[in-house]
Amino acid sequence: MIALSVNVNKIALIRNSREGNYPSVLDYAATCITAGADGITVHPRPDQRHIRPDDVCELSKLCRSKTTVGGAALEFNIEGNPFAEPLRDYPGLLVLVEQTRPQQCTLVPDSTDQLTSDHGFDLSTSGEKLKPLIEALQSLNVRVSLFMDPDKRQLDLARELGVERIELYTGPFAAAQDNAALFSNYCAASRHATDIGLGVNAGHDLNLRNLGQFATAPGLLEVSIGHALIVDAIEMGLAPAVKAYKALLGQACS
Q1: Is 39 helix (H, G, I), strand (E, B) or coil?
Q2: pTM of the entire structure?
Q3: Which domains does the chain have, with CATH numbers?
Q4: Long-range contact list for 92-95, CB < 8 A, 24+ apart?
Q5: Reduced to 3 states, what is the DSSP secondary structure of residue 138?
Q6: Is 192 a catalytic residue?
Q7: Is 204 a catalytic residue?
Q8: What residues in the chain have per-residue pLDDT under 70?
Q9: Which residue among the candidates 75, 79, 167, 222 is catalytic per the annotation?
Q10: Exactly one of 75, 167, 204, 222 is catalytic; which is it?
């Protein structure tokens, strides 16, 4: 079964539009878990536009106290740019990971002024700089995933760095809408990653219209979905939205 990790950044974004703690990110994450989510994802940024350091700590405790519907350990996944400098009370990604020890840390090459992530790593230029950071994370018993484009050469470089997983950036797939050649490229990349020993995650702009197709990519282990799921929750309710995404993943595996 392909795991669903729900990104709760958008809940934090709504909360931050007012003073106080409404809506509660922790409560909404708990609802996702009860509805069947296999994990919770956060992507803290230095400007704290949504997830804050205290959210990361609270969600870590919540995830450690929960299991999935099937009884497996619930995954906590922290995404972010490991090169982003600390800012005010944002201590930096690696400090947050050291404090909370998530099961997975997904490294993403987003700049501080980006609206959202929009490309994978070019490891031919950043690989050597990433290597000691990857080793530091693995010394904490944290699984490392790299946000990557579906480029076989780049995936080979990821394998050389010793990471356990990659997350395929699916923005172009979602934007293309029924582009068979592009989806074939993603499938080839996913198959290649699996063949060379990398676990395959995926995320960005996956939704109820395109997830069913993408979930058939060979070797896919996990999807991380936030924006679309929270938008669907406005109409469907949060728990039904989580269940709808889980149902699509289940159909793809049947």
Answers
A1: strand
A2: 0.95
A3: 3-253 (3.20.20.70)
A4: 93/44, 94/133, 94/136, 94/137
A5: helix
A6: no
A7: yes
A8: 111-118, 254
A9: 79
A10: 204
